[in-house]
Amino acid sequence: MSRYFTAELAALEPYTPGEQPQNRQYIKLNTNESPYPPAPGVAGAVEQAAAKLALYSDPESGALVRAAAGWFGVQPGNILCGNGSDENLMLAIRAFCSKDRPLAFADVTYGFYPVWCQLFGIPQAVLPLKEDFTLDPADYYGLDQSRNVGAIVIANPNAPTGLALPAEALAEIARRNPDAVVIVDEAYVDFGGESCVPFVRRGDPANLMVVQTFSKSRSLAGGRLGLSLAPEALTADLKRVKYSMNPYNVNRMTEAAGIAALTDRAYFEQNCAAIRATRAQTTAALRRRGFTVLDSSANFVFARCPRLPGGELYRRLKDRGVLVRHFDAPRLADWLRITIGSPEQMQGLLKALDAVLPPQD
Ligand SMILES: *Cc1c(COP(=O)(O)O)cnc(C)c1O
């Protein structure tokens, strides 16, 4: 930190992204990317868009907004595009929380939520998950009064556990917090979660919004594209913040990639189905080896090895060319988050596991 860095942010602990190694070739199961390429139409669409790079992108991403409105069955006024869903989440937290309106979230969830709180000077209302990593919706009732929260953010399915709540449970949390906004982070919903988008379609509850990403189920992590789906009044609030930070937040090539991805429903569904099938096989194979594996609704599994500490297993796998995610955090140290890759990649994982694990008794 230089002596010029603002004292206000001296304690800021930035988000640590999963490793993106540039040297060695790994079986890369650490950042929940798709093992499958983007939809076949994406590359050509990006190339066409690149020819117009001298011109600014459409700040409204109008063509993409219309395509997404069609896909989700909502109005264009319900949608805001983001530079990754991280940007949509950040805009929402900036819009609805402040130094006297905390953000509520679980103790075990996406690690970026507390970082935005620190960056914007927003207090955190952290609510522990139960021992088995499930979330009790009742813990979230009335937080608008009891804790004066401005917003509640819940990843559903949750990360890194993969556990999901029914959509109705999220809607009930919103009804029980009429003076706060409930942000449902649906980064993994396409792999088996139940979406809250139908509530946005109805505009009821009026304080419920959804954030989705193209990074996981649409194979566009490197394109950086996310969406928020929210009642029009909330979307207008999000736009006020966006136009105060980065009006051209979605570049031309990414907008074109997003539209192309949304025109190929069959390809999308085929990939999601493949991930679900591979997830079932991987879960069973890990359980046969004595692992505890949570029932995942996402494109990863959260697993605990009975015979080695999480950090040790992570390192041994890495030495064998398999990269998974280990969180050196209080409740998570014994666990690994393993992305579901292609069947061949998962065979590679199992082979490495069998080489590094001590024999079962
Ligand atoms: C991956 C992920 C995101 C961010 O996705 P981007 O669209 O790539 O920014 C947001 N929330 C959760 C829970 C995620 O796992």
Automatic annotation (TrEMBL):
Positions of the Aminotransferase class I/classII large domain: 25-353
GO molecular function, one term: pyridoxal phosphate binding
Entry keyword annotation includes Transferase: yes
The EC number(s) this enzyme carries: 2.6.1.9
Catalysed reaction equations from the record: L-histidinol phosphate + 2-oxoglutarate = 3-(imidazol-4-yl)-2-oxopropyl phosphate + L-glutamate
GO biological process, alphabetically ordered: L-histidine biosynthetic process
Chain positions with N6-(pyridoxal phosphate)lysine modification: 216
Keyword Transcription regulation applies: no
Subunit structure of this chain's protein: Homodimer.
Name of the molecule in the record: Histidinol-phosphate aminotransferase
Lineage of the organism: Bacteria, Bacillati, Bacillota, Clostridia, Eubacteriales
